[in-house]
Amino acid sequence: MLMNNPFNIKVVRMQTTSSPVRQQERQDISHILDDESLTFAEKVISIKNIETRDKKSRIKATAGDIVIVNVDLAMAQDSTGPLAIRSLNEMGIDILHDPSKALLVIDHTFPAADEKVANLHALIRDFVSKHNCMIVEGSISHQHILEYLATPGMMLLGADSHTCQAGCVSAFASGIGSTEIAAVWATGQLWLRVPETIKINLSGTFNKGVFARDLILDYIGKVGEEGANYKALEWKFSNDYVKRQFSMDSRACISNASMECGAKISVFPLDEITTKYLDENPRINNNIGGKIEIQPGTYAKYKDEFEIECDKIEPQVSGPDNVDKVHSIGELADIEIDQAFIGSSTNGRIEDLEIAARMLKGRKVHKNTRCVVTPASVKVYQDAIRRGYVEIYLESGAVFTNATCGACVGTHLGALGENEICISSSSRNFVGRMGALSSKVYLASPATVAASAIEGKIADPRRYLLL
Amino acid sequence: MNDQPIIITGISKGRAWVFGDNINTDIIIPFRFKSRTNDPYEMAKYAMYGFDPDFHKKISKGDILVAGRNFGGGSSREQAPVALKYAGISAVMAESFARIFYRNAFTIGLPALEIPEIRGKVNQGDELKIDITYFTAENIRTKEIFHAREVPEFMRQMLLEGGLVEYYKKYKQFPWIQS
């Protein structure tokens, strides 16, 4: 059993089809929900403001305000949880505010790669069994949260920068440090500064061989690694046709990778794709708050607006050493690679494994290249088996691992040696990210990584995707 | 094992180590080291490993990092400011900080001073003086005084006590509650 469910929570289906809003709660906060002058971030923080909840005050939080908020879920993983536990111990805090809202995930170096990691995993398991909080082992936290826990309008904080991924289901989701997570576990609250918001309008349709990852790399290349530092990103579709090409998997990729330009949150306001996803993937913990449809106001004030025409984007490759060093595929073609990595919370979902499998079917990984494939969660792994993708990967000569953050952070299952070059669908390409300081990482979509695996060099995916 | 917390208070003096833009958390401490210990003194052995694996041996107690834009970008790892502090660094000054690193630095009691004009005003090895009561920095060589970006009062109070854990140990509540 991979998921421990200490409360024996009954699986409750969210009432998303009729209305995601619980009526009584909506009445209490209708003045915020209906305010046309507020951004998504301003609305969520106004609702979660402890003053609003405790006193039904009519305070509205706007960009720049510092507000104490109630937190619906606070997560730490196996490389940040131990420090959170250490801080709680040092403060002498022995009781958690609400253990059902505390989640620990053992994902980064799972299963333990060595004794040191095993001891820290044991520390986490002891803490969980003492406090009766939630634990997940063997799925990447962000993907597990998306599949089972995240709800629209919830306040989610995680001791992991890519926590912002849950913005794809219209959650307010943001990364913080270990000791602050400890404070949330202790009190259920934390202070936040209300971020300014950048609105990004999407239009046009993707050309063949171009995916969400290319879009977000292109954006980061334009605004730089601190282009959205301290800010919220709000994604908006110019029409339904544009909207329909952004599946939940592709939204998750964009929200996740928004961290690489510093975004505090990266949100896709709730639409029919969100509700369909939530209908098909019922939430397992009914105790977690949120479940409120929050739409940005029509006259909300934005710090900046940005237009992206999807049809103008080409396959992008970022790197090495900085994510904002973004190139069109043609500029880097023919760089020989030692490893191709398909996976991570940024691009290890079923659509990612599908496109790469389609390309590798009946083909072989180049003899000078190793190809490592890592699903983002147990569910993705199971789907990949069911659909025959695992078989295709193994036939092609790729290695298929368990779900973990392993190779992305160079901790196990695909680390790089001296001077090795890797093309990867993972999150970052920083110096030494995947291993030796002299190794180099290039980031690209799973399709570009698969094309590169076949050719043994950075390669354009479009020639494999004509049909 | 040395288990004593390091607490930085009031005024610090030290030599400057000057860096450029985008010094990210993987440079400050790689994942594979920070994820294999829960001991801050052990983390300190990998401070700035991505720049120079022997950096921790070259630091004198009190030394100060000076950097360009977006210091501490990337991961949420609190081990990044912890490694710097336990390696002997007494403050970081930068033109700008990445959001999570900035929060973490205050939380763990490593003074982080955002000074937009700092680049070009400090040379490698300059002696610097930092005063966290007033959030100012002085380059002893040039006598120039810099004012860092102000922070909410509760963050300053937390820093003056040595970070969130020390603040809580003293007052038995979290600093943001008072306001």
Could you outline the blueprint of secondary structure elements for this entry?
The complex is a heterodimer of chains A (467) and B (179).
Chain A: E1 3-4, H1 23-33, H2 40-48, H3 50-55, E2 66-70, E3 73-77, H4 81-91, E4 102-106, H5 115-131, E5 134-137, H6 141-149, E6 155-159, E7 172-175, H7 178-187, E8 189-193, E9 197-203, H8 212-223, E10 232-237, H9 240-244, H10 248-257, E11 265-267, H11 272-280, E12 304-309, E13 316-318, E14 326-328, H12 329-332, E15 339-343, H13 344-347, H14 350-360, E16 370-374, H15 378-386, H16 389-396, E17 399-400, E18 421-424, E19 440-443, H17 446-455
Parallel strand pairs in A: 3-4, 3-6, 4-5, 6-7, 9-10, 9-12, 10-11, 15-16, 15-18, 16-17, 18-19
Antiparallel strand pairs in A: 1-5, 2-8, 13-14
Chain B: E1 11-18, H1 25-28, H2 31-34, H3 40-43, H4 55-58, E2 64-67, H5 79-86, E3 91-94, H6 99-108, E4 112-114, E5 127-131, E6 136-139, E7 144-147, H7 153-160, H8 164-171
Parallel strand pairs in B: 1-2, 2-3, 3-4
Antiparallel strand pairs in B: 1-5, 5-6, 6-7
Summarize the structure in words.
The complex is a heterodimer of chains A (467) and B (179). Chain A is α/β, with parallel strands linked by helices and 467 residues long. Chain A folds into two domains: 27-290 and 300-310, Aconitase, domain 3 (2-Layer Sandwich); 318-464, Aconitase, domain 3. Chain A has 17 helices and 19 strands. In chain A, strands 1-5-4-3-6-7 form a six-stranded mixed β-sheet, with helices on one face. In chain A, strands 17-16-15-18-19 form a five-stranded parallel β-sheet. Chain A has a four-stranded parallel β-sheet with strand order 11-10-9-12. In chain A, helix 14 runs parallel beside helix 17 (446-455). Chain B has one domain (11-150): Aconitase, domain 4 (Alpha-Beta Barrel), CATH 3.20.19. Chain B is of the alpha/beta class. At the A-B interface, helix 4, helix 5 and helix 7 of A face helix 2, helix 6 and helix 8 of B.
